[in-house]
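Quarterly update from the structural biology core.
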Amino acid sequence: MGQWLLKPLISATSARFSNSSSHSYLFTVSVVKPFTKETPTRVSAAKMATSSGADNKTNSTKVIDSHLHVWASPEEAAGKYPYFPGQEPTLRGDLDFLLQSLEEAGVDGALIVQPINHKFDHSLVTSVLKKYPNKFVGCCLANPAADGSGLKHLEELIVKDGYRAVRFNPYLWPSGQKMTNDIGKRLFSKAGELGVPVGFMCMKGLDLHISEIQELCTEFPSTVVLLDHLSFCKPPTNDEESFAFSELLKLSKFPQVYIKFSALFRVSRMPFPYQDLAPLLSQVVSSFGANRVMWGSDFPYVVPECGYKGGKEAVLSIANQVPLSSSELEWIMGKTVVQLFQGQWVP
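Predicted structure, tokenized:
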């Protein structure tokens, strides 16, 4: 377990534009970076987006998806891996489809997040991790039950089954309870003790959970944090949304906090390729550094929106619009998540 210990990375990335005003990101800005002999060359997203899986294997930097799901096929669910009642999926998300999608998009591996379709039954995802230990890393789902049974379950999933991250879904907490209750703090502390990051899903808005995240980060600085899907911050259109995004940027003061630039179709106000997210990505990279930012597809939900490969291509297109350097893009497309989960996805 010792080799898994997470050490937050601190980056000194050049700022693209000032974010001192909470309204600055309401506008699309053109950014010109001064060229020095140390300035990395810009990558052609079009070239990278059309590269094949074979091309990726010649590159030392692997392309890793930091956020996707896999669940049983209907046939598997009828037998060994049943869905949780009421959470039957409406999309195909089985392993064969996932492997096919990764191959077609030239993606080398992924962090699999336990889907709500199986809730706290991790057997399907565990079977995938055991079958493809060099391709996938598992993120389990925290069980915040009041009886504390989730603590033992978390430790078993990490120590016995090899999960290397855990997701906090605040909407699974008992009614009226926050993630900062006794169980939440014990789960969060245990994750840090075991060297696994905690991912937060703020689907109903960061403003509802920002104080909890701040409190947990302050009290337990050794626990690494992953913020899923830009914490569901969309391009701001009013003062309230502007404030929420500014609060997201302020979380960069905690060196253990990382951002997933993922599920772009959920946070953009525009159709594919989601170009309105360029100013947000620019400010996130300026605040956190590219080595604390990682892309994610949110497969299979991304498939009906723009296709799995389209989800990857959108990130590259947005990166060109910012623009990001080749080094920054390498961090976001795989290097950040590889660094977080050391010993995984090795060349």
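Residues 326-340 form the longest helix (15 residues).
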